[in-house]
Amino acid sequence: MRGISVVILLGAPGVGKGTVAQYLKDKYNAYHFSTGNLLRNEVEKGSDIGNKVEDTLRSGGLVGDEIVNELVKQNIEKVVSDGSVVVLDGYPRTKNQAIVLDDMLSGKLKEVIRVIEIDVDKECLVARLSKRRVCIKCGNTFGPQDGVTICSCGGKLIKRKDDEESVIRNRLKKYEEDTLPVSRYYADRLVNVSGDGSPVDVVRRVDVILHSLGIEKRR
Ligand code: AMP
Questions:
Q1: What is the pLDDT of residue 10?
Q2: Are 8 and 61 in contact (CB under 8 A)?
């Protein structure tokens, strides 16, 4: 049994977690597991969960741990199998979620959990997020530097409702309040990486780290 590798991407909204996750998905055949995308899908479907979380998503606050943990439990089973690399993007976001995740993974398969925290200056993030566009179909994100008006999957690019400046500032504040304890929780498994520069620069740094940690292409 090879076990599974779980790579947790931490970092404030806009540091480039989605871009890095997309890259890891392609290069390492990893599963990109984004709670933001899962929650937005629920809203789009108009499910019970979607109706419950819609207002929170629009305001930039955090959805309750119980709902998010349950959604992750339901979906992670589908991607966790022997030999897989799973990239968690946007989860865990609170210490409670981190504890629940450890519990979900423990005893199932021998797992290796690595945590990469991407750091970017706050004002740069506000500027970046205001210009960000997301594919309505696959959830890929694009900045002005990509020069893309339509996604390669054919999906239309839109500005997310929570990428308005006031909402962005609220999300950053929430991030500081709720997610910093998560970094502390993972202190012994955490590596910091600078998120400055282009997405290519950032993924190159992440690549070097994963290589040094012995995480390799699977499946
Ligand atoms: P994201 O796409 O990761 O920026 O997430 C978009 C929004 O979904 C966040 O602003 C939260 O409202 C909600 N969300 C995503 N992941 C979580 C999580 N792990 N815990 C609570 N709320 C979340």
A1: 94
A2: no
